[in-house]
Design brief:
The protein has six helices and ten strands, in the order H-H-H-E-H-E-E-H-E-E-E-E-E-H-E-E. By secondary structure, it is of the alpha/beta class.
Amino acid sequence: MSDKSCLRKALLEKRKKIPLFSRHVKSCRILRKLSREPLFRKAEHVAFYYGIAPEVETKSFLKKILKDKKIYLPRIDPKKSLALCRVRSLLRDLKKNAYNIMEPKALCEKRPVSKMDIILVPGVAFDKRGGRLGRGGGYYDRLLQKARKVIKIGLCFREQIVKKVPMKAHDVRVDRVITD
């Protein structure tokens, strides 16, 4: 098993052990910090994600910011890459995909990732230099490679910060990490 696989497995287990109430409190803290972030406040086109347990809970925050910002969530396209699609309503515009993750429906307004003002990304682990460890499919790395000039912010719990994420040439660092 590779260093990345071992680290991913250990951190997924560690994150799962955070009690539900603690995860909720920590998520609120993280999203409050994000809402105060000047780069986020001035952003109009925001690429976000719909958090799935046990990730940072984003649903209530997304509902709140939909009226003030143009929100784009990832949708897995037939080529196994992510497309960013505009979401105006979490109820009307989303459906569960094959991985049981909420994503925009097929008939959505797409926007290139390079045209985003800011991109908020989940991760299994982050380090202080912006190294990011995802779930292992490479979806976000392929997306972020097309957005070198866009500000990328990782959202995670303190337990997900590690000394060093093993990085390969195709891996993309985030510019900042917000944690509880």
